[in-house]
Amino acid sequence: MPIVRQYNFSGELIGDFEVSSDVFEAPVHVTAMHQAVIAHLANMRVGTHDTKNRGDVRGGGRKPWRQKHTGRARAGSNRSPVWIGGGVAHGPHPRDYHQKVNRKVRRIALRSALTLKVQENNMIVVDKFRLEAPKTKEMLNFLKTADVAVKPLFVLHESNLPVAKSASNIPGAAVIHVDSVNVYDVLNHVKLIATPEAIRKLEEVFGA
Fold first, then answer.
1. Which of 200, 160, 197 minimizes the C-alpha distance to 176?
2. Given this model, what pLDDT does residue 106 score?
3. R_g (Cα) of the chain, nearest Å
């Protein structure tokens, strides 16, 4: 079974932590990860952008000048896209960017992303975050001592306001619940820091 390092909140290595081969030693499927990331980014788009075409702009009903013998180019409306104040040609309009990814593909993609973290030694387990109140300094000391200070992603099994607030001022850091784990966040962050309970939850949900 794959093994990751386990630390306490003081940043001290306390041993190894075995993880499931089904989730953390799965075949790495690059295509599935790519599809999941593209869909995630697309689904984040609101799609409320809108522009006015020449039919939506007020005015423009009268021909600016006669067709011939003026020495100027022909013009049928002062709301043409080539005019200042005219409509926008081929501009964006409200649309839904949502992309669907099949459940099986999502599972394959997440297993692949988690496997990459283990293979690259970019994943650790923390037995417990001992924070009674938000303390960014203590969080930074832990990250530095455990050598996981580069864009860390905290995966928790329960809501923990002190941890969330302590990490909120750290550049590149993010805190998510294990139920919200997704391929984009796992790949977008360099270091993955999880609690033992969160690991077991991932194995339960995404295991074979």
1. 160
2. 96
3. 26
Residue from 158, 155, 163 nearest 139 by CA:
163
Q: Extract long-range pairs of 158-164: CB within 8 Å, 24+ residues apart.
A: 158/197, 160/129, 160/131, 161/134, 162/129, 162/131, 162/132, 162/133, 162/134, 162/135, 163/129, 163/131, 163/139
The C-alpha atoms of residue 172 and residue 185 are separated, in whole angstroms, by 11
What is the model's pLDDT at position 155? 96
Q: Phi/psi class of residue 121: alpha, beta or left (left: φ > 0; alpha: ψ in -120 to 50)? A: left
CATH of 3-45+99-206, one of 3.90.950.10, 3.40.50.720, 3.40.1370.10, 3.60.110.10: 3.40.1370.10
Tell me what pLDDT residue 104 has.
96
Question: Where are the CATH 3.40.1370.10 domain residues in the chain?
Answer: 3-45+99-206
Residues of the chain short of pLDDT 50, as ranges, are none
DSSP per position, 169-184? TSTT-EEEEGGG--HH
CB 198 within 8 A of CB 155: yes
Instruction: Count helices and strands (H / E) in the chain.
Output: 7, 6
